[in-house]
Amino acid sequence: MKVATSLAGLTLCAASVRADIFDWLPNWIPKPLTPSRYQEAVTLEGLLTHAKKWQQFASAPGANSTRVFGSQGYNASVDYVTTLTKKYGYKVTQHIVQYPRSDIFGASLNIDGKDYKYGPSLAVFSYSPPTPGILTGPLVLISDKPGGAEGAGCEPADYAGIDVKGKVVFVARGSCTFAIKSQQARNAGAAAAIIYNNVPNQGVISSRVNVDVTQNVPTVMISLEDATPLVARLNSSTPETIQAALSVQSQVKNVYSANVIAQTRWGNDKKVIQIGAHLDSVPAGPGINDDGSGSATVLELAKQLSLFIPPRDANAVRFSWWTAEEIGLVGSAAYVASLSQAERDKIAVYINLDMTASPNGIYGIHDGDNSEGANTPAVAPAGSAALERLFQADFDSKKVPHASYAFSGSSDYDAFLNAGIPAGGIATGAGGIKTPEQAAVFGGTAGVAFDKNYHQAGDTIDNLWKDGFLVNARSVANVVAQLVKSLKPIEDEKSGAKTSKIAPTSTSSTKSNSFGLVDLGKTCLHDHDEL
What we know:
By secondary structure, the protein is an alpha/beta fold. It is built from 15 helices and 19 strands.
């Protein structure tokens, strides 16, 4: 009894005892939160425990190997997060969103006698309308007109003088969104559109066209390698007639889906540190890297934070798992829109984690000060640069190289930036191709995508960069623990004061490990329509 009493007293007096004394205590006794302890508490085993659950939910009977929003696999993920965060002692709410969901039940394509199997060699874009049975017609290659403002199939001029009525448009990916390409084909009278990938060795990817199905034709993708001989035949001096037969079985219906929000019961709830990642996948696969890695990191951070004693005058922490990111950043946008200005003002900073374990990845930090000049919009809210510097300082202290990653409107940080809330975060890459220079700094393979399974069925539990997974999670733990104790770097920047002890981006100490700007291949426009 005396031992128990003395330990209880020691815990209650934590603020007045040297922190290192607590390191001698058994693990079952709560210890004061420090950046080093929080980082060490985050383990690869813990992160993989959650990632394996996402795989389990997608692989369950009836789940169709996906965790797309509102689906069986997604709802199981929501239940898992909700159950655990309640168990950890958080105030947990589900924020319900209604949105049209596209379900693809199957597809087939035959071009000139060659079959393209749905999944490995044929992708159907979400919100593609169904075909009336098997649709047949000749392929018509659409090229970019000389002097064209955008790219192939991106504007009406590309179709000028070309008869595509009732035919199947064949057009390269790139320059404008998939949605625009499908809509332009429809406006020109085409019966369907085949978009071929312009990225070598990437295969086919899952993305979407217009949510308003009436603006689309049935739209599918084949790989660059499969398309190249067809383009050559259609471009020859004596063009051939190449017949295509396409079948798409699909439907669109409104579904309800949930964001999950979990906030600490301690801390100043007028100064909230919010951390988020999207919980949904694309229809094509389980999304274990995109963004199972980010959402697993958020969950493990929540678990481990619940085991510590917060500092005196701590700031509150809010963990978030977003729905329907993959079809337009819908969940996070709906959440921010639901907040009053007074509630928005309580969010001191938002940290976004979207793909933190890409198998051929790099360490990317969002460019909070736009030092590389690629942000859209160019100016992030004050406090964003301070958050960037905190992450830079963490990586520099560990001698881990890092690169700048532009704000491009491509993930859930967007709604927060638009609401004037400082934001940032880390990412390891999507469909962008790693250069030899990047491979020399970060390792991995040049000429291959950061995630070769981006938006594909292969984004499974075997598609994770485990070292990056852990390094990134611990980096976030370090930054969060600092901000729980003090928001001074963020607040100094907001007030215009120059008192932050974190070195500015332009100093040699930060630049020593900085690669510069990297395009991670997740550039989206118009509500997350992809290029």
